[in-house]
Amino acid sequence: MVNAKGRLAGRSGFGALMGSKNLKAVCATGSTEVDVHDADAVWQSTTKLLIDLVENLNDFGKVMKNSGTAGTLTDSAQSGDAPVKNWQGVGSEDFPPEMSNKINGFEITKYEVGKYACYGCPFGCGGLCHIPGKELLKETHRPEYETLCGFGVQLLNDDMESIFVANELCNRAGVDTISCATTVNWAFEAYDRGFITKETTGGLELTWGNAKALVQLVEQMVSNKGFGAMLKDGLKQALINLNLPESEFAAMHVHGQELPMHDSRFKDGGIGLGIGYEVEPTPGRHTSTFSGIDEYLEAEQKIEAQHKTLNKFYGKLKFQSKYKLSDQAATSEIGESLKNASCAEDIINALGLCNFGFYLGPMVPFVDWINSTAAMNLSLADCLLIGQRIKTVRHSFNIREGVDVASIRMPERARGNPPLKTGPNAYSPNVLMWDGAKAEYFKSMGWDASTAKPLAETLDYLGLDFVKQQLYSHKQTATI
Prior knowledge:
Elements lengths: L1 E2 L3 E2 L5 H7 L18 H17 L3 H9 L5 H7 L11 H4 L2 H4 L4 H4 L3 E5 L9 E4 L10 E2 L3 H9 L6 H14 L3 H16 L18 H13 L4 H4 L3 H7 L11 E2 L2 E2 L11 H10 L13 H11 L6 H7 L16 H18 L15 H9 L5 H21 L11 H4 L18 H12 L10 H6 L3 H8 L8
Antiparallel strand pairs: 1-2, 3-4, 4-5, 6-7
């Protein structure tokens, strides 16, 4: 899936799904302008945001402006946010600053020949690069943090050019760099531990830090040749191809989706990230939740008392809830926080907004945009309830299709079992919290804490009668 000539949606192989349907492209056009209720109000709130992005940009925003997500690499490697050596190493010990600084955003921008942005974006965190003497890299995109960490920090590889090449090879093939790098990392560890040999790899020496072997392996994966052909379909299938039992290996995937480059053992927010890896309708993603929504809720409560506009909103949807939730819905603070973060991300996605925009410092006036555009009078709480409806429908689809959602679980290494003995994430307190926090999230969402199935009363409250009919009236398919 490609747009803007070089922006590829490789995650989860959506392009492969389109290919299986013989679908070449999707084109959209229109004959009328989008109706906006109060364009002046929209522009007023947008102008304030644009000014704030100039005057009140935080440190992360300044880094993003200069070098995109690549600029966060060194800090992530040293703080414990970035996993190392297939999640078994420690950045400050195995990939210290003298190595990570060789491949961070400030070094990469030396090869930058131009900036680019998504359509209409005033910020522009992307970069076009040129590596002299390399025809493949004559015009290439600046690698993002996930790519730099996966092909760099994780593999103990500080050879910048090899990461540029691996990134370009994946982009040209429409391959997700996260899944590719995580699969490669597993192969390097398996080689290091002797589970696969030089004979198995066809001569490739998958030793930590071997930049040449990295490039050769990625070339094989994207071209379906050699040892790479055994890995090209991701970790879950690679274990089958190589006839290796998953129980004996740290295959860092969740239900078949390879984990990204943010450590769930990280003491600063790792618990929310990890719960998201396990409970989201599309598991194993670092962009499924927005924990910063709690600050938005606090700000709204300071401005005015919480107001209720649910009936007015749902009247527009030809639905008005006649139900109230029982005391079962009363949950812990962590459950409510996890729920808010999860539902907020569904609203951000439903509105087509940039995820990064919510981390730059100034608050994004998305509630004002909704109300001014659609002639509504929603509060932030109302929006989160809409997010809960969206999340519940997506989650229920998986249940209807027979997915045992309650049993989806990260590899024990990502849960901190056994815990790291050194570094920022050593003996992380998250280790003892996973199952309890997960149950509290389910309860906050109004789902059964054991099975994760939405309660009938929750579906009544959310006005999801069609979902209730399918979950409670029809025979379920076999468990996946």
